[in-house]
């Protein structure tokens, strides 16, 4: 039972609709058939590059409901959910076990290093060839400032900003 998914005819606190808890607007906003509020405690990832081309990545997990005791997700595993090198920085989100099996973040850097791919090509290849369908996505930045993302699930919340004042936000 996931306490974040409201019961039919009830709000998130178990009250009858309209008496408290979630508003009608929140019920109308859905992703994967569930209220958008279910996705509130999600992964937050950040990739950055400075003026000298030094890359950094950070990933904070939103956790997993009813996880097995002792389970460690992909976020703290360098190379799986988070990775930075001289070439790029990568942060992943999605089903941790699938991301761990793919060593997804490290693969992007390895594709750039060993196959000479650009960051966009490496991200697209890693998502298409290494990550199981519907299991997640990632954001990445190259050492020369190219920013990209990729995902193979319904949506992935993301944003981007640069020194020129360009801001982008996306879900689908």
TrEMBL record:
EC number: 3.4.19.5
Site feature location: Cleavage: 42-43
Matches recorded under SUPFAM superfamilies: N-terminal nucleophile aminohydrolases (Ntn hydrolases)
Active site per the UniProt annotation: 43 (nucleophile)
A GO biological process held by the record: proteolysis
Binding site for substrate: 71-74, 93-96
Catalytic activities: Cleavage of a beta-linked Asp residue from the N-terminus of a polypeptide
Gene Ontology MF terms: asparaginase activity; beta-aspartyl-peptidase activity
Gene3D superfamilies: (Glycosyl)asparaginase
Subunit structure: Heterotetramer of two alpha and two beta chains arranged as a dimer of alpha/beta heterodimers.
PANTHER family: ISOASPARTYL PEPTIDASE_L-ASPARAGINASE 2-RELATED, L-ASPARAGINASE
Protein name, as recorded: beta-aspartyl-peptidase
């Amino acid at each position: 039972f996931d306490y974040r998914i409201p019961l039919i005819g009830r709000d998130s606190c178990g009250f009858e609709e309209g008496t408290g808890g979630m508003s009608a607007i929140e019920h109308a906003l859905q992703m994967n058939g569930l209220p958008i509020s279910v996705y509130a405690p999600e992964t937050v990832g950040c990739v950055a590059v400075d003026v000298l081309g030094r890359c950094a990545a950070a990933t904070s997990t939103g956790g997993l409901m009813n996880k097995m005791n002792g389970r460690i997700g992909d976020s703290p595993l360098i190379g799986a959910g988070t990775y930075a090198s001289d070439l790029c920085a990568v942060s992943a989100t999605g089903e941790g076990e699938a991301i761990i099996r793919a060593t997804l973040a490290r693969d992007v850097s390895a594709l750039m290093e060993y196959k000479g791919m650009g960051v966009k090509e490496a991200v697209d290849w890693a998502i298409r060839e290494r990550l199981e369908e519907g299991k997640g996505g990632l954001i990445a930045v190259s050492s020369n400032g190219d920013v990209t993302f990729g995902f193979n699930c319904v949506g992935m919340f993301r944003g981007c900003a640069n020194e020129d004042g360009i801001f982008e936000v996306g879900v689908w």
